[in-house]
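[Help] Beginner question about ligand-bound structures

Sorry if this is basic. My supervisor gave me a protein sequence and a SMILES string for 2-acetamido-2-deoxy-beta-D-glucopyranose and asked me to "get the holo structure". I don't really know what that means in practice or what format the answer should be in. Inputs are pasted below exactly as I got them.
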Amino acid sequence: MGMLLYYFILASFSGALGLSQPICILDTADRMNLVCKNVANVFPTDMYYGNKNLQCENCDIKVFSLSTFPHENVLLSLNISHTNLQAVDESAFSHLGNLRNIYFEFNKIDRVSSKAFKGLRQVYEINLRNNEIKDLIPGFIEDLEVSYFSLSHNKIEEIPNNVFKGTLVVANLILSHNKIKNIHYDSFTGLEATEYLEIDHNELCYIPIGAFRNLKELKYLNLASNKLSKFSLGTFSGLTALYSLILANNSLETFEGDELLPMHDLNRLDLKGNRLFYLDAHLIYTSAPTLKHVSFEGNVFSCLLLKNVIRYLKAQKVKIETHSGNYDVQNINGIACIEGPVDELTTKEFFFDKAKEEAEMSVRYNSYC
Ligand SMILES: *[C@@H]1O[C@H](CO)[C@@H](O)[C@H](O)[C@H]1NC(C)=O
Ligand SMILES: *[C@@H]1O[C@H](CO)[C@@H](O)[C@H](O)[C@H]1NC(C)=O
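Answer (accepted):
No worries, everyone starts somewhere. Holo just means with the ligand present. The predicted complex, written as structure tokens, is below.
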């Protein structure tokens, strides 16, 4: 009790002077966890950090650099989240070669220097989500081997040419929820080993021909919730191993099927929530005969077209998946359609108004019985 009171007084006294001493304590409930508090720039140097998971609390580290951990150590994971962290310097992890997880989430990071993660191998996760990164610096993940790297919920506007060059492996790369408008011919150079890429919830309206040509291992590509309206022959060239292509919630008016010709193993295609008024199921299926699952609710289909598309895909044993679905108007398993003709001028508003009108008509018609 006396000790506690003493500690409390000491803590509030030094706190008032802004002199809280950095301290690291082993979590008694889980001896794998080390909690460090009040670290300002440099972690205490007079202690041994075993192969533990370190979590920083009430820390004030602005720049994470080589001198943040001045000595070599064998820490397994490092969590500096919800603090004021603003930048990661070159070779910042040179003394932390055993790290498997780096959580720098919910900070104010706006600069990750070239070669920031240099030398790290077999890292499981590096998570930089919810930061302020606007510009990606070329070489920022050079000489790194990581399974999962997230930059989601930042402010990235562009993927510059060769920005990923020199990367060893980034198996899963998450760029969701940014402001990416521009992708270039050499944006993805360096991601030859990447298998999973998410660029959903960005502002892409155009993808240059050939941009994906080096992604020979890519299995999953998520481009949902962008502003894409059309593709060229060659947009998806190189994606020979692709298994899932997610194009939901864009502004696609046409999808010919030719887009899928480069793929040898495509299993899943998601086209829901676009502005498609025409689909040629035969062209789509013959372009990707490995297809097993498609999703295309939330477009502007005539009922005649929808019935034909579904009949054809069923015959090929392709499963048609619906997620939310419109069941209160004419529909097939939630995929809405209208009797009237549709074309490229049919807006979603017009389509759903018309669908409701037709539904009301049919109610009136049927209530004479
Ligand atoms: C990292 O630390 C924060 C507290 O700052 C905590 O909320 C979060 O759960 C930790 N993350 C992991 C993966 O342990
Ligand atoms: C598309 O948008 C809808 C509504 O905003 C959302 O519920 C859904 O998750 C989105 N789909 C994808 C694949 O992002």
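A couple of things worth pointing out: The helical segments are 2-16, 281-287, 303-315, 348-366. Residues 55 and 79 are 5 Å apart (CA to CA). Feel free to follow up in the thread.
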